[in-house]
């Protein structure tokens, strides 16, 4: 009997394919009311993990549960979990409505539900069109409609924005946020943090099958300390004034100073008090995509982004362990 919590729990989950360690000792939880992004480069183990959560791949070790039980022990799973995996295929000659009705019949869901989900995903006007004539974006929506047929509590989506145009991505973002705001659970994978940045609250980042970050996106942003870059008339005098306030200052090759621990107005006030003229000032924006590449650079091998000092050692707060784990 499941606990009805809507929670996905992954504990010590690993999968080997012969010599390939596709997923290594993953631990994370996905809670109702949130959209959790499962992020990592291609080949980092995202699909394998989702397939283990959905009972389609047997783990080498560890467990994945939904509502406290493995997927295969859920009675009538389609009413609890809706899933969209990659490469969904449809009978090209079948209309969208008939495709959904055939799934509805298999799930013991009333036919009327087919029209309801078509409406939900914005395909009502295409109900009578054959799936074979659909664009990639429309096929993605039809896949989502199929996953929604059982009015599930939990949605699991593998790379749903692949092939979507900006309008489709924006639509999906709003849909997923509204779904989660209803107290439901969303786990969505992507190899691009940028595409998910405004959709997800919580992120689990994997690289080479291992967890490299598990936490709130806001905390990830905050972990990268912002810097104020200033061009001063008398850099040495400004450094002395900033040091008096225990601020960290770095000399940049272009002659500017990089100040950590204060925002731009405070640096400007301190410069004014010290009688130092400022010729330029800029607050460095946190570039999440860069952060993502840093975290997963073990996998990219050659990713050339090095910003020593901006990160704590691997294994620090919020991080999954050495090397930095969808
Ligand atoms: N059935 C399989 N047999 C052998 N190796 C596999 C199998 N499925 C996945 N792998 C390997 O496991 C690793 C993880 O693959 P997986 O598809 O889970 O990653 P992914 O992060 O989803 O990547 P992508 O975004 O490219 O699909 C890869 O090295 C892949 O080649």
Automatic annotation (TrEMBL):
List the PROSITE patterns. Answer: ABC_TRANSPORTER_1, ABC_TRANSPORTER_2
What residue stretches are annotated with the ABC transporter domain? Answer: 8-233
Listed A to Z, the keywords are: ATP-binding, Nucleotide-binding, Transport
Cross-referenced Gene3D superfamilies:
P-loop containing nucleotide triphosphate hydrolases (3.40.50.300)
A Gene Ontology molecular-function term? ATP binding
UniProt lists the family membership as follows: Belongs to the ABC transporter superfamily.
- In the record, what lineage is assigned to the organism producing the protein? Bacteria, Bacillati, Actinomycetota, Actinomycetes, Pseudonocardiales
* Name of the protein this chain belongs to: ABC transporter ATP-binding protein
**The organism's place on the tree of life at top rank:** Bacteria
């Amino acid at each position: 009997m499941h606990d009805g919590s809507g929670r996905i729990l992954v504990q010590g989950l690993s999968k080997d394919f012969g010599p390939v360690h596709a997923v290594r000792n993953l631990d994370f939880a996905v809670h109702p009311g949130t959209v959790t992004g499962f992020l990592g480069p291609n080949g980092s183990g995202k699909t394998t993990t989702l397939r283990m959560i959905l009972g389609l791949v047997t783990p080498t070790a560890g467990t994945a549960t939904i509502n406290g039980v493995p997927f295969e022990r859920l009675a009538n799973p389609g009413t609890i979990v809706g899933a969209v995996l990659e490469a969904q295929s449809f009978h090209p000659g079948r209309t969208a409505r008939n495709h959904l009705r055939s799934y509805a019949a298999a799930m013991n869901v009333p036919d009327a539900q087919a029209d309801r989900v078509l409406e939900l995903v914005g395909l009502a006007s295409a109900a009578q069109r054959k799936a074979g004539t659909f664009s990639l974006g429309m096929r993605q929506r039809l896949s989502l409609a199929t996953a929604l047929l059982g009015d599930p509590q939990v949605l699991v989506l593998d790379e749903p924005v692949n092939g979507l145009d900006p309008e489709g991505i924006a639509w999906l973002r709003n849909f997923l946020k509204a779904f989660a705001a209803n107290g439901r659970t969303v786990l969505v994978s992507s190899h691009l943090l940028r595409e998910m940045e405004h959709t997800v609250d919580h992120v689990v980042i994997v690289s080479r099958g291992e967890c490299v970050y598990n936490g709130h996106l806001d905390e990830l942003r905050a972990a990268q300390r912002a810097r104020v870059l200033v061009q001063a008339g008398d850099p040495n005098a400004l450094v002395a004034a900033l040091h008096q306030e225990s601020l960290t200052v770095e000399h940049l090759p272009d002659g500017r100073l990089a100040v950590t621990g204060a925002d731009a107005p405070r640096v400007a006030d301190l410069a004014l008090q010290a009688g130092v003229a400022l010729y330029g000032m800029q607050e460095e924006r946190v570039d999440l995509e860069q952060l993502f590449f840093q975290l997963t650079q073990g996998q990219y091998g050659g990713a050339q982004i090095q910003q020593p000092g901006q990160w704590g050692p691997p294994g620090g707060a919020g991080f999954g362990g050495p090397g930095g784990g969808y």
